[in-house]
Specification:
single chain, about 210 residues, alpha/beta, Collagenase (Catalytic Domain), 3-stranded mixed beta sheet, 7 helices, 8 strands, about 15% strand, binds zinc ion
Length: about 210
């Protein structure tokens, strides 16, 4: 689902990333992808025009604002809501949220994205918004592929080769699963590499395929 006001080309970039990752993983037709867009259920507002719980992307974002700080969403809180939502119990699914606001989590003053293995990811476009539009779009593709990679199990805790612990396990190859703490600089580098044919390295590609073969 998508926060109201996110640039449509950025939404398209994330959807393109989902297809790219599932294709590399060899499961491009096995997963059903539903774009809920700016999701609002028919009863998202009550008779006093107040938002009802769980019934719109606006509500999730507002909760992350209330639990967040000035101009930043609390990413961890938003993830917890996704984890506990009634929709998950009704129909288990991967959750992907796209926001244009800046995110932070307990350990960092900001993050461009958050992901939980086997569950979901929150992707913020915020730190790329000042870039030239084409460059911003490509960086968002790189970032989304990275977070979706985490969502699909990367980096395996059992991996011993070319691995680094930096706010979670990351790859040390020429690969989009590298950690990029310098934003946007590192992501411009990863994006250039990706456009030159280096998206997931051989090890990450292997683990991505294994994730779906179990
Ligand atoms: Zn990461
Ligand atoms: Zn890798």
């Amino acid at each position: 689902m998508v926060e109201d006001g996110v640039d449509q080309t950025h939404v398209d970039a994330v959807i393109k990333s989902i297809h790219a990752v599932t294709q590399i993983a060899g499961v491009n037709n096995a997963l059903q992808i539903n774009n809920f867009g700016v999701w609002r259920s028919h009863n998202w507002l009550n008779s006093q025009d107040q938002m009802t719980e769980w019934n719109s992307v606006d509500w999730y974002i507002e909760q992350a604002q209330v639990h967040g700080r000035h101009k930043q969403l609390h990413g961890g809180h938003l993830m917890k809501l996704l984890w506990n939502e009634p929709w998950q119990k009704m129909h288990a699914h991967y959750d992907i949220v796209i926001t244009k606001q800046d995110l932070y989590d307990e350990k960092c003053n900001f993050v461009i994205g958050l992901a939980v293995h086997r569950f979901g990811t929150i992707i913020s476009t915020n730190r790329f918004l000042n870039l030239e539009s084409e460059v911003a779009r490509e960086c968002i593709v790189t970032e989304a592929m990275h977070e979706i990679g985490h969502m699909f199990g990367l980096i395996l805790s059992t991996r011993t080769q070319c691995v680094d612990e930096s706010l979670g396990l990351h790859c040390t190859n020429k690969c989009i699963m590298r950690q990029g703490l310098s934003v946007p600089h590192d992501w411009l580098v990863f994006t250039e590499d990706r456009l030159n044919g280096f998206s997931f390295c051989d090890l990450c590609t292997r683990d991505l395929k294994r994730y779906f073969s179990k």
